[in-house]
Amino acid sequence: MIIILLGPPGAGKGTIADKINSLVPIPVIATGDILRKAIESGSDLGEKAKSYVVSGKLVPDEYIIKIVEDRITESDCEKGFIFDGFPRTINQAKALDLVFKRLNKDIDQVFYFDISYETIINRLSARRVCTRCGAIYNLKYDPPEKADLCNKCGGKLIQRVDDQEETIKKRIDVYNEETSPLISYYEKMNILTKINADQDLEDRFKILWNRLTEIGVIKNSKLW
Ligand code: AP5
User: Fold this and answer.
1) Does the active-site annotation cover 123?
2) Which residues of the chain, if any, have pLDDT below 50?
3) What are the pLDDT digits (tens) for 68-83?
4) Helix 90-103 vs helix 61-72: angle between axes, to the nearest 10 degrees?
5) Which of 35, 86, 126, 178 could bond to 139 as cystine, CB 3.0-4.6 Å?
6) In this structure, which residue's CA is closest to atom 5 in ligand 1?
7) Per the confidence metrics, is the pTM higher than 0.90?
8) Which residues have C-beta within 8 Å of that of residue 149, sequence separation ≥ 6?
9) Domains in the chain, start-ordered, CATH in brackets?
């Protein structure tokens, strides 16, 4: 199963990716997480990506395509994977098409999460993430049991550097300009399902799961 989660910042791509991953044993490839880890470790890639991520701009396509190409050829990706936050430009989508052609792989479905501007600002300003396991919380909608501590691993919860209001606005502008053209790109390929992301997680998940069942990726509510 190969699926793409597409949508603006704060649409809940990471949250739904975690939910799918808890039921289906395939990896989530989140380019944002890979970049944040690289920045934290001070690697070469991290040094190159830092100024883009902190200011809410997109990291140049050439770095991203290389990251993804390397990652999807790892052994845990054999049965499929979930892209969260990739592709993000038409160039990235075209590069992915070429890589998939070479590897004889196909995208099963692209889920586009549509969400209002107000909800994005509301959700992202209250988001907290675990520094140890990456779990996502929301101080308003899904608060941790103990303030600033992860329920799952006890790690410290922090606010992402790019979750300040000004940077969120910049990320939304970048999304509208560079990423939203992907909606029609995948619509034309007839593999796009639109989901209203203002609804709660369970309702969104049900639509996604039903669609995967409908197209035969999940059989009898099981993957394999
Ligand atoms: P990335 O990490 O991918 O950020 P993003 O796409 O902006 O998306 P977010 O992670 O902010 O939001 P999300 O949709 O995952 O929402 P979440 O589930 O957390 O990218 C960061 C940066 O890296 C980019 O700006 C760029 O610089 C760079 N980058 C990454 N990929 C790149 C690429 N391919 N090319 C170039 N550059 C790249 O949910 C948000 C909040 O809402 C959470 O608090 C959650 O608890 C809450 N929530 C979720 N669903 C619900 C619900 N139904 N009801 C109530 N609350 C909810």
Assistant:
1) no
2) 224
3) 999 999 999 999 999 9
4) 30
5) 126
6) 9
7) yes
8) 155, 156, 157
9) 2-26+79-214 (3.40.50.300)
